[in-house]
Amino acid sequence: MSYTITDYTKKKAKEIGVEVRPSKNPKKKVDVYRNDVFLHSIGAIGYKDFPTFTKEKGREFADERRRLYHIRHKEETLAGLLAKWLLW
């Protein structure tokens, strides 16, 4: 299963000064780089994210999924924060 990086994620990446590329890890969606230095792979390939939910089910449903995601994911690791900023 491959993942196409959305315009939403590209816009968010630009806002925080990172670059996103398709992940080299087959279990992840996106690899994140800053100044061509690899930071992390984020987004499990088997799970949906905010832009995917928005496209498939609409903004209201996606907003609720985002709210629930933020409740479940309180970790403050770099990978967790990048996933929140770029995919949610």
Describe the structure.
The chain has 88 residues and is of the alpha+beta class. It has one domain (7-87). It has four helices and three strands. The chain has helices at 7-16, 50-57, 59-72, 78-87, and strands at 19-22, 28-34, 37-44. It has a three-stranded antiparallel β-sheet with strand order 1-2-3, covered by helices on one side. The protein is globular and about 35 Å long. The two termini are 20 Å apart. The model has no long low-confidence stretch (mean pLDDT 95).
Average pLDDT figure: 95
Low-confidence spans: none
Main β-sheet, in a few words? 3 strands, antiparallel
SSE succession: HEEEHHH
Strand content: 15-25%
Basic shape: globular
Structural class: alpha+beta
Q: What's the N-to-C terminus distance? A: 20 Å
Q: Please compute the radius of gyration using only Cα atoms.
A: 12 Å
Please indicate the count of domains: 1
What is the number of beta strands? 3
Widest beta sheet: strand line-up:
1-2-3
| Helix content estimate | 40-55%
Number of helices: 4
